[in-house]
Amino acid sequence: MRIRVVPLLVATFLVLFASNLPADESPSILQIRHFREKEINISEGWIDAEGWVEQARVALLDFEHYRDWAVRWMDGNDPESAKFWVKLTDYRFKTPDILDVIYDLNIGWPLNSKGEFARFRIDQTALGQSIVRLRLESPIIGLAESYLVMWSEHNRVYFRFELRFWGIIEGLIDYDQFHQALAWRLNHLAGNLRDYLADRASRGN
């Protein structure tokens, strides 16, 4: 696995301590809560998916087409995300259990970098239950483990971040800002999936 020290350190700082995500004043489409189980920090939300919950289940399991919906409004191709320090530009599925999230750093010279990636491993056991559980494998200094979990049930689609930090890092994090950043990404991820499926339905796909 390619590991470049400067992008790694910059990504660590941005993930744990900083974010220039916009203050989103539009109503959230997700019902989001932040809580803690033992040492795990959890941010979880759900969206009402009545009428399209089965299509959502199929789309969540279709890793080859994440690039068609998951990066929208986060990739720098609109005025808002063009200002982001971290732009998510692509998802690359590598059979059978690797999903790479491609990103660019846009902070200013000499820290700019393109085509970096965060590697996630797909939990095959959870997948057998139609649950997408992605474990971050790329190292983030201060982050002991991280998961993105997505699933559908009872006319709802759920999105969940699970993160455990190094003990020494815990007291340094501004959790209000951190939760706001996680909520923003979860909200837009859910909206992207909803809009993608609605567009496909309108085109008869």
Description:
The protein has one domain: START domain (Alpha-D-Glucose-1,6-Bisphosphate, Chain A, domain 4, 2-Layer Sandwich). The chain has helices spanning 5-17, 53-60, 124-127, 167-170, 175-202; strands at residues 31-37, 40-48, 86-94, 98-105, 113-122, 132-136, 143-153, 156-165. The radius of gyration is 17 Å and the shape is globular. The longest helix has 28 residues, at 175-202. It has 205 residues and is an alpha+beta fold.
CATH topology grouping: Alpha-D-Glucose-1,6-Bisphosphate, Chain A, domain 4
- Characterize the overall form: globular
Q: How large, in whole angstroms, is the Cα Rg?
A: 17 Å
Overall pLDDT level: 85
Task: Supply the helix-strand structural class.
Answer: alpha+beta
Helix percent reads: 25-40%
**Integer count of domains:** 1
CATH superfamily: START domain
- The CATH class turns out to be Alpha Beta
Describe the structure in brief:
By secondary structure, the protein is an alpha+beta fold. The chain has helices spanning 5-17, 53-60, 124-127, 167-170, 175-202, and strands spanning 31-37, 40-48, 86-94, 98-105, 113-122, 132-136, 143-153, 156-165. The termini are far apart.
Secondary-structure map:
Elements: H1 5-17, E1 31-37, E2 40-48, H2 53-60, E3 86-94, E4 98-105, E5 113-122, H3 124-127, E6 132-136, E7 143-153, E8 156-165, H4 167-170, H5 175-202
Antiparallel strand pairs: 1-2, 2-8, 3-4, 4-5, 5-6, 6-7, 7-8
Observed structural traits:
alpha+beta; Alpha-D-Glucose-1,6-Bisphosphate, Chain A, domain 4; 5 helices; globular; 205 residues; 28% helix
